Amino acid sequence: MIRASSDRAVNGARIALALRRALELGERGVQVAAYLGDQMVIDEFAGVTDNATGSMVAGDTLFPAFSVTKVATAIAIHLQVKRGLISYDDPIAKHWPEFANRDKGRITVAHVLAHQSGIPQMPAGVTPELMCEWDWIIGQIEDFAPFFEAGTKNAYQSLIHGWILGEVVRRTDPRGRDFGDFVRQEICVPLKMDDFWIGLPAREIPRVAVLTSELSNLPAVNQTEESRAAKPAAVVLDAPVHNRHDVWQACLPATGAIMSARSGVRLFAMLANGGVLDAVRLLPEKMVRSFTTPPSARGRYGPGDVRRKSGCSTRRDRRYVARWDDSGRWTWRPLPHRCRGNFWVR
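Above: the chain sequence. Below: its structure as C-alpha cells.
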C-alpha cells in the first residue's frame, strides 16, 4: 500500500513507479489524483489516450468516469435537501406525480439513494440513441412496474438511478435547469472542477481518451433478473457504447460523467473534509457525516444496514451485519457464509 505524504514530490515518485507497473500489466492510460485536506498531494498520469494515435495521457486528459457520476448526482440531491426543497423521506411522486403510476407511489428519495427502490431496470427496447434522450427515459420510468416493494432489498440501479434522482432535482430547481447545467453551476463551478461534465460540450471531444476493454469477452456471473434488467446488453457499460460521441455529449446522470482525475478528486476531497474545500462550503458537516451512518431500519436486517468492517471480526471465519435493535443500539450479528476479507455495502 502506498501511503500519501504531504510532500507531493515523494508521492509522485511512488505513484510513478506504481503506474509504470500498471502499464506493464496491461493498463493503457491512467490518471491518479488525491488530496490531503485542502492540498493535492498526488497528481500523476501515464500511458496513451488512444492506441491508434499513440497520443500520451496528460493531466488534463478527460476520461469517461462511469459510476463516479452517481456521487455528483447524489450531491445534487443533498443540495436540494439542504435548501429545504426536498426531504429524503419524500415520495418521488410528491415532486414528480406521474412517477406514482403502477404502484410506485411509496418509493422515496431515500429508497433511490440506497438502491432499494425496486425499479433497477432500464426500459425495454433501450438503445444508445434512446438512452441519450432524457424525456424518453423519463416517460419510460413513469410506466415502470417494481420488481419488489421499496425498502425490502437492494438491487443496484446501475443506470436508471441517475434519471430518477436527476428528474427530482430538475423539478425542484426554482430555475428549472437541465440536470447537467445544475451540476455544472451548483457543484463544479463552486468547487473549481473545470474538467467535469455530465453532458460534454462538443469542443471538448478531442480531449477524451478512447476506452479499450475486454469486458465484453468475459462471461457474466452471478446474474439475477434484476441485474440483467439493470444493465441490458444494448447499453453495456463498456467501450462499444461509451466511446460514442453522442453518449459523451448526453446527460447520463448515473454513468456519463467525463472528467480528469484532478477535477473529479475535488468532489471526494470536499466530502472527506466534511463538506468544504478551499474555504467553500457546499454541504453542512453534519449532513456529510451522516452519509456513513446506516439508515435506521429498526427491528429488521436491511440491505442498507451493512457496514464496513476490516478483517470481519474476532470470529475470523464469519461475516457480520450491523443491526439496529429496539433499544436503539447497533449490534453485530453473524451472517451464515464464510468471510472473504473486507466488505462494503451501502
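Residues 1-52 form one domain.
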